[in-house]
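Example 3.
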Amino acid sequence: MATLIQTLPFLVDGLLTTLLVSACVIALSLIVGLPLGCVLAFGPLWARAPIRLYADFVRGVPILVLLYFVYYGLPAIKLNLPSLLAAIVALTAFKSAQIIEITRGSFQSIPTGQTEAAKAIGLTLFDRFTHVLAPQAVRRFLPPFVNSVVDTVKGSSLVSLLGIVDLMLSLQQVIGRTHVALPLYLIGALMYFAINFPLSALSRRLEKRFV
Amino acid sequence: MAETDARAAAGTPVIAIEGLTKSFGANQVLKGVDLSVGKGEVVAIIGPSGSGKTTLLRCINFLEEYDGGSIRIDGTEVGYRDGAGGRKRRGDRELAAIRVDAAMVFQQFNLFPHLTAAENIMLGLMKSRGRSKAEARAIAEKWLARVGLAAKVDALPSQMSGGQQQRVGIARAVAMEPKVLLLDEITSALDPELVGEVLAVVQELASEGRTMILVTHEMAFAQEVADRVVFTDQGRIVIDAPPAKVFGEQPHERLRSFLSRFAGFRPDPA
């Protein structure tokens, strides 16, 4: 028991790294994915085509391949990223593709009658977007987005494979030293769960409220 | 120029449609439609489905882009303006300014689900008519009271029946004080017992001299409320006459076969 308590600060450090990576990935993916998703929903074909290609390609590749590609592959073209940055770049590439899709779906699932009604009372494109489409899109966006955040937190455990001491790797290191596997994996699982359960619950509530 | 002046002196129609054509791909749904609607007139468009009546209505506020011919609201061409090298499609802002004069009520209501009844009405008043929030609120409350929904001012569309939603839809359109009110089969999506409350509102609006064009399957209502009934078939206007004449003793052959499908409807020649 005493050993377990001694390991806690180390695990918490790992947890903080997991949270840091997840937060960076989510924030960057929103910055990239929201505008590109809007273009995919409303833009002209020449702008949609490359976004479509990017989103389909990235979502069709295992995240691990993206991670190794950025960390081990890019140095071949003289792009040497430190492991933490490489991890964030790779996960953001994947997550932004998802955000693009969720954003597009949020807008496209709004019935065309909404746009027509907004046009029929003389709203300009800007007003149609800000007062009619966007508020409805946000309601459609939130539940899948929160699920996507949960996936990010869980999926971030892959960065341990680049030697980043996140919650996953810190668990393995502690187990390596103490040879106490089961309780530690349990603690680790509970830590992931403690972050993700409230998010899942939030997502379910949002779905009930808005859908 | 002289011709325009002469027409203005004679009272320009609120809506002047000339030679209107519209195709969806290879399918021409409007094959040269002429229709003119004067101020205060109520025109009912009837006809078999696929005859182009809804497309015609949607062209008037450019929800459908017409290919040829012209639609003018108070003399202003709706969707296009003349420029160097032929007519050009109007930009978004110009269209918005024109559309507000031809506000539309839809078959599926199309209320904004995230806004209350009052907010549905206020949005256009504030954004398109430049009203302050307080003014818009007062106008919205006035109109909701007029359509019998004073108690539903702060209700969301999901908390209202279909008939109530459609009355909000009518209030939202008419509150814009459009030059013409377009009603597109506004009772078709309603349960039969809710049709009456919506038609009563339309009837009242008609009686106060508002210019309206309505596409409808309610033959008895068209006969009662319309100054003119327009029968469309295969992309053309076949008949354009007062209801007494259209539903009279010897209806046009194609109209007769159309009307025979409305089992309960007995044309009332008086």
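The domain at 2-210 of chain A is CATH 1.10.3720.10 (MetI-like fold). The CA atoms of residues 10 and 170 of chain A lie 7 Å apart.
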